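To assess whether the prediction recovers the assembly geometry, we first specified each molecular entity separately, as shown.
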Amino acid sequence: MRLRSYRTGAAGVAGAIVVAIALAGCGSSSEPGVSSTSVTFGTHQPLTGPAAPGYSEIAPASQAFFNYLNAQGGINGRKIHLIYKDDEYNPAKTVNTVNQLVLQEKVFGIFEGLGTPTHTKVVGFLNSSKVPDMFVASGCPCWDNGTAQPYTFGWQPNYTIEGKILGQYIKQHFAGKRVGVFYQDDDFGTGGLTGIRYELPASQIVSAQPYQPGGTNVAPQISAIKAAGAQVLVDFTVPIYTALGQLASFTLGYKPQLVVSNVGIDPTTVGGLLKTFSKGKAGTELIEGAITDGYLPSNTDLSNPWIALFKKVHDQYDASAPFDGNVEYGMANAYTLAQALQLAGKKLTRQDLVGAVNTTGSKLTGPGLVPFRYSTSVHGGYAGAEMGQVRGGQIVLFGGPLVTEPTAGSAITPYTTAQPAPPASGVSVP
Amino acid sequence: MSALAARIPRPHSSLVRSLGLVVLAGAVLLIASEALGAYDELQLANGAYYFAVLAGLTVLIGLSGQISLGHGALMAVGAYTVALLIGDERWALVPALLAAVVVTTLVGVLVGAAATRLRGPYLAGATLAFAVGLPALADKYTSLLGGENGLVINPPTPPSGLGANFPLERWEAWIACAGALVVLFTMNNLVHSGVGRSFRAVRDDEIAASLCGLHVGRVQTVAFVVSAACAGLGGGLLAVVLQLASPGAFALQLSLSLLTAVVLGGLGSILGAVWGAAVLVLLPGWTNDIAHSFSLSTQVSANLPLAIYGLVLILAMLVWPSGIQGAVRVAVSRIRERHAPGAGESSP
Amino acid sequence: MTRFIDLTLNGISTGAIYALVALALVLTWRATRIVNFAQGGMLMITTFIASSTIASSGSYWLGFAVALVCGLVLGAVVERGLMRRVEGGPPLNAVIVALGLLILLQALAGMIWGNTPRSFPPAFSIRGYDVGGTRVLFSPNNTFTVLVVVVVAAGLAVLFRGTALGLKMRAAAFQPEVARMLGVRVGRMFTLGWALAALVGSLAGLLVAPEVFVGPNQFDPILIFGFTAAVLGGLDSPVGAVVGGVVLGLALSYVSGYEGSSLVTLAALVILIAVLMIRPRGLFSSVQERRV
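The predicted structure of the complete assembly is given in tokenized form:
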């Protein structure tokens, strides 16, 4: 247990000039980072460095959505501010960054902290300091522990849930076919592989090859999977490695049925990396027909009112970024935080925010296709996903949303409640 | 002023001088830590464990003339030792730190022995491969070392004697500063001792040193071992202050930052290590603030701190080839000459 | 057996890239006794320039040529404008300046082109050759890469051993004062060495970019293994750079294929130490130690 005492020192360290981002009315209430007119969150993101590709778009997209809400007066009369800082995906920097956000910038809470190796290093501090740790941007099952980590909440469906849903689809549609798995050698990949193994018999998985994020030569791994005769290739990869895997497959003339995690399939991102190999087309030739899943509407489906809303916000507040899955993620997550703030009420304390998600989180509806798994003890995030396929270079969802628990025996059941339309302004809460 | 200084009897024993230095530094740190806010205490703690590594590294590179691009990996050894002992085995703080020093020293013996055969860029290449390769062990032995996620430990609890409300950050700063003071004492002594002189002798002319009876390989290994011990302590302190040991925290970038900090601060001088530690802790914050004071697109403002850092490195080497301490030395000697022209001096 | 062949071919094609980077490092070392840690940044910039040229003009070979020219210019500018000032001083200062330049270049690339990696076209098809009904892990583009390495290495060997210019460059590097007295324009030789090195680096960037994508940090592994290969082969030897590159590429490919990707960097360390313990100046070192 960490002891905390707020002590504002008079002198600063030699010459250190700290430009505190203006927090309107900070210090007037007993809780930091909140006043009657504003509330401030902080986040740590990989904005530079090898892990930055794609992820660096998420926080600016969230901020864009907050700007959209702020233009309408905010939530409960408060404008939402997001301070995002670069941690270069280095856990040591994550600790320093979060310390700075909490102790120096005095944010109300942390939102959308990105990465498992990074965020796991600050969960202890945030919980013992009773700082809300909202909607971590990572699918690690480790956020899902409301009893031991009451202030930390997951948001996206965790990797095991996704693995199960994909695994069930393979079981039903590719029975008897040999399956190979190409996965990132960390919680993301191993979590997904665990889920797959819950659904498929061990004999069906003929090869499971991990790769280290950071290296660029994945041909030995793809070659091993091809040599094992896998007819289905499951990718628990981030977009760069989905693309690298496809290049190696192309060289080897290896054309298995692709099944790719929603983390690594965004056609805009992957297509962009493969563009020059697709003779000038969108670049998605090599992933055409890949099976995937989605817990948000496909970001190319402009007929979906949520996508139309996000596109509008993007064009006005975040136009320099491509409108892809990362931007959709940032905005959808921001919508959930805004809903939580709305539920927490006019008088906003940290406990109110956490309590609101515990009590009412499971009833929230919004851009998500599935419900949330939130209660006092469960802080899991989205409960499932809908199957999808890359058709014509875009993700088309089919079959209806499916929900499940991240455990071995639990069933995968359809979720039949229709997605509501977005409100004309602000957010809507139950 | 210097006439007055000349009349104060100076203790000739470097041991006593080091002790005095430590007492002085300790007093300054104690007073400073009382005045600092929580975040700044942590910055102080960060500076302290960086100083621990840099002091050893500056002795290795500056005094014994051997380059190392792998001290980040040695810090990792110390950090993982502490994290495993405190986390899994529930050791107390000081024994865990001592164990970290011992384990890293042993690794340092191996590295140092290999290093004696290598010179210049070949030593650089070998230590760089070490920096890149060693953290990969965490991915290989996932169950023991935690894989990509690494290990997390509980924060150290301040002893009850200090009061129930003693801020955790200050306690962490005290632990780190205590370690830094130990390093300050040992390294300052070493620099002024026979061992330090043997390092310099081997650096300047191996043949001559060998002819004088110094065993070159052994001296070089001792230098490596000493710097490894410092790195082990620095890494152990890092684990205590940040409560983590993770491969992502000890990537090649850390080793390169240590190298640049040690040269920027001023090679071969303990004070240079202080400047280097200050640069490592303060510069990122300053560059970030500069970058965010203009309203630029995310793409530009996210990369601007790094661009400034790169520029600072280049300009510093062009303008102050002897680092910050070299520039300070020059400035101090100019001031002294102005006040007492002709009175020769030598400064630490 | 197919596995072994594929891994061998993969090792040769990745090793060829390490060899090119190693050659660039050998060039700057032989010319000015500096290890150019900024090489990775420089080749990244020229590849970005090529990428933009190809995107706007539609012609791959124009982008290729532009990258090579930019490489020459960049190398010359960096040496004349920056490295010249630290060439005479403590060797570590040059290392720090190079590191600073690397960081600066990566940050500039991020600011100008963004952190999102982009696709880069290969010179030739990346479709593996059909051998007896199976597609192997080697394509026309890989053949091109290997040919380029052979030509560059041979060209450098001829340059240094067979031409007057090469002799002047070697003289300027080893004994600048004496060389000056003999009429060699030492400064120009330094600049030429760096320009050539950057040219070779640009080639490496162009050839590897299709498979690693173009981004500020995408070439980092290539640089690390290229440096390892250069040290492995001996920094004074272009032949050593090629051999070192291929040996490293093969070894890492086998380790990755048979043992798993997590051991690759560790394997590089073990191989390097093993070689350096036997030959402390690399496989093809010719300089003997003075022993007492």
